[in-house]
Amino acid sequence: MAGTIDRRGFLRGSAVFAAGAAAGFACIEIASAAPIAVPTVDKLSLRVLIDSAHDQFLKPATVQGVLHQPPGNGRGADYRRVLHNQWGLSLFAESWRAEEARTILLDFGYSPEALLNNIEILKVDPTKVDALIVSHGHHDHYGGLTGFLDKYRSALAPDLKLYAGGEDNFCHRLSPVGTTGQFTDFGQLDRRELTAQRISTVLCETPTVVAGHAFTTGQIKRSSIERILPNTFVERGIKDGLGCDASHYSPAELQGKIIPDEHVHEHATCFNVRGKGLVVISSCGHVGIVNSVRQAQEVSGVEKVHAIVGGFHLGPAPKEYLTQVVGEIRALKPDVVIPMHCSGLNFALEAQAQMPENVIVPTTGSRLVFSA
């Protein structure tokens, strides 16, 4: 990576700033293209605030040095309340380096009702949050953000930032209706609401250190056998102050055409745990979980993979392709693989078949601890 932003990157950044200014988006930053100094932490805790299921019969276990603490009955002190599960993901990441602690909220689930409910039941402290990260522009990963800020913004740091992979996160998404050629609305992350809440957005097309403890991969190279499985479509452009700048995309996109979503700015969040290696968190992994891990290795210079965590978007994968991808994951030699969200039961079963000593299947409310 160059120490300064190249001309193309500068023009892209300038276009984003210009479009943002025109639409009233005052709080936009472009992450530096300079190489990062990858931080190391002594301990990392991931609390699963939202996932698709809850299993109250899970037992505590330690797998390859990783502690998995399930949430028990998921009710807390009040039997009339229960953890909410939904299609989406949200992770509460706490890390420590000596006595220095940092907290990051990674993704926000589908709805604020579920996120706020689970925060209260699990008794995590949202006022400790040092940074926010959104993995990509799908509603099941940002849907709870505005409601979270409505409730807790006044108790959070005044200079709180949201780290997004790039401008693509704010584009309008649509879901196809079968093979009819019709679409239903799948929303878009509204930067106007973030500005109203005094949240600065950092566009991390390049690797970026977050809160001094974590780092993001930046835009992920596509070098493996993986492919984007069918999902959403995308419409670029700004309408009525809402959307994403389209000036640096393809001619088809400039014409306002709806095209298959390539997730050009999806990024993974990573920690380097002292003596253990990388914990790579792929919230959905549309661009490929193997690609994501390889990118983390390249930008960090750390080869050892301690854990691969999160959504891998292999639920819709055909059997032959799934088997091949799990084989590629096994070749990365992770200590543990921890599938969530869109990974799919098919992935969990195949991973357990190929890597029987290395798989942890968590649940909503689970706590995963990685330590030196």
DSSP summary: helix tally: 9
Which percent band covers the strand fraction?
25-35%
Number of domains: 1
CATH topology: Metallo-beta-lactamase, Chain A
Shape by Cα distribution = globular
Radius of gyration: 20 Å
Strand order of the largest sheet: 1-11-8-7-6-5-2-22-4-3
The end-to-end distance, rounded to whole angstroms, is 30 Å
| Arithmetic mean of pLDDT | 90
Amount of helix: 10-25%
Coarse structural class: alpha/beta
Return residue spans where pLDDT drops below 50 for at least 5 consecutive residues.
1-26
Strand tally is 22
The appropriate CATH architecture is 4-Layer Sandwich
User: Would you state the CATH class?
Assistant: Alpha Beta
Q: Strand count, sense and closure of the main sheet?
A: 10 strands, mixed
Protein name: Ribonuclease BN
Pfam families: Lactamase_B (PF00753)
Keywords: Signal
InterPro entries: DHPS-like_MBL-fold, Metallo-B-lactamas, Metallo-beta-lactamase_dom, RibonucZ/Hydroxyglut_hydro, TAT_signal
Question: Helices, strands, pairings?
Answer:
Blueprint: H1 7-23, E1 28-30, E2 43-50, E3 61-63, E4 66-69, E5 90-97, E6 100-106, H2 112-122, E7 131-134, H3 139-142, H4 145-152, E8 161-164, E9 172-177, E10 182-185, H5 191-196, E11 200-203, E12 208-210, E13 214-216, E14 233-235, E15 237-239, E16 242-244, H6 251-254, E17 259-260, E18 269-273, E19 277-282, H7 289-300, E20 305-311, H8 319-331, E21 336-340, H9 345-354, E22 367-371
Parallel strand pairs: 1-11, 6-7, 7-8, 8-11, 19-20, 20-21
Antiparallel strand pairs: 2-5, 2-22, 3-4, 4-22, 5-6, 9-10, 9-14, 12-13, 13-18, 14-17, 15-16, 18-19
